[in-house]
């Protein structure tokens, strides 16, 4: 009985690990596309400003070729709008794929509750960790919570989230909190690293994190 459970558990853990790696890659790509889109808006403004202030020799050459400054400006706008539309589409597809992948993640909590009491290494459910380990998890979640202030930027918050996850993994690599942290990272990664998080996302994240802190650090 115990051997069968361990065999099944190993397969599920391997599946979770593979899924986690896939989610991490998708989240990283999502953040990159979002940041590129933000950078593109800045580049667009710089290019258009450069076209307006085109040096006279260049403007003369363009005129001699039968191309006006207005035509150059319109060409630049059209190309950048097409590129922006491409990024918008890629961003939408990535978000849908990320949501679909996260939705099929097998919940380690259900597995842990069915594990025989004498089997070591079974994934822990939230609140079932030894007191000292639970306090360490709660402390790291506290660090994430403190970073979520009004006006906070995505980049620093992501660094704290990934750092907290790394610290928690040192003591409970298969705990259910890992899936939640990945979910929170996904929310923040939807922003450019230099952009501020919107209030609704900050409040939602804080509410979820406070609930999990209470699970790991009972009053």
Write a brief caption for the model.
The protein is mostly helical. It is built from 8 helices and no strands.
Protein model, in words:
This protein is an all-alpha fold and 219 residues long. It has 2 domains: 1-120; 124-219, Four Helix Bundle (Hemerythrin (Met), subunit A), CATH 1.20.120. It is 76% helix and 0% strand. The protein is built from 8 helices and no strands. It has helices at residues 2-52, 56-64, 69-103, 108-114, 131-147, 154-169, 177-189, 199-216. It is elongated and about 80 Å long. Mean pLDDT is 74; it is low at 108-127.
- Quick one: overall form? elongated
Total domains? 2
SSE order: HHHHHHHH
Mean pLDDT, nearest integer? 74
Structural class: mainly alpha
The DSSP helix count reads 8
User: What percent of residues are in strands?
Assistant: under 5%
Number of strands: 0
Radius of gyration: 24 Å
Topology record:
Blueprint: H1 2-52, H2 56-64, H3 69-103, H4 108-114, H5 131-147, H6 154-169, H7 177-189, H8 199-216
Features:
mainly alpha; Four Helix Bundle (Hemerythrin (Met), subunit A); 219 residues; 76% helix; 2 domains; 8 helices; single chain
